[in-house]
């Protein structure tokens, strides 16, 4: 299945720029609180657990056997850069959640990175074709400094929600703030509402 970000496409480039953002063009700034970890596909894994019927862990090979999904569209960082027309490929978070079976009480997601980074969001922000775990950018393996082997992609929220080096999606009954959220970033982070800081 292929999912595109074109459905809500605005007519001009400036209409696609959320308030307070600028177009970074072909550039792509690198931002991280941690040192880039060395990729190791042999030990890489992705887990969905917490409030689920059946916690699941995929190896690198196993996750590639799932139906793939592509996002085409824009991304927006809270530090005010936006990047238009990105193409990321991986798997829809819907596919991962389906395999684990969220329990009725599951209402929030805490995404964890292998480095200790984390970020939280309502489960409603990652279901219905709005979020991905991605390992390709523009048809090439995602670079380690941009989160490779794989990162979360939640493009309708500020980019700090898109955890690089993601290895675990933990479903929770109650909201639990992540790395930047405990340091004053907004709990939800909608760029169109300029939800930058709390
Ligand atoms: N593990 C991890 N993921 C992270 C971050 C981080 O510091 N660590 N920073 C976030 C922020 S604030 C942004 S803007 C984007 C930056 O992604 P990029 O370096 O690919 O542009 O990653 C997000 N994901
Ligand atoms: Mo950011």
Protein architecture, described:
This protein has one domain: Oxidoreductase, molybdopterin-binding domain (Sulfite Oxidase, Chain A, domain 2). Strands 1, 4, 5, 8, 9 and 10 form a six-stranded mixed sheet that branches. It has a five-stranded mixed sheet with strand order 3-2-11-6-7. With 198 residues, it is mainly β. The N terminus is likely disordered. The longest helix has 8 residues. The protein has two helices and eleven strands; from the N terminus they run βββαββαββββββ. It is globular, with a radius of gyration of 16 Å. The structure holds ligand MTE and molybdenum atom (MO).
Outline of this structure?
This protein is mainly beta.
Helix segment tally: 2
| Radius of gyration over all CA atoms, rounded | 16 Å
Order of helices and strands: EEEHEEHEEEEEE
Approximate shape: globular
End-to-end separation: 37 Å
What value does the average pLDDT take? 95
The secondary structure category is mainly beta
Looking at this structure, what is the CATH superfamily? Answer: Oxidoreductase, molybdopterin-binding domain
Largest sheet data: 6 strands, mixed
CATH topology: Sulfite Oxidase, Chain A, domain 2
Number of domain units: 1
**Which CATH class applies here?**
Alpha Beta
Unique ligands: the ligand Nc1nc2c(c(=O)[nH]1)N[C@H]1C(S)=C(S)[C@@H](COP(=O)(O)O)O[C@H]1N2, molybdenum atom
Q: What percentage of residues falls in helices of 4 or more residues?
A: under 10%
Percentage of β-strand residues: 25-35%
Low-confidence stretches: 1-8
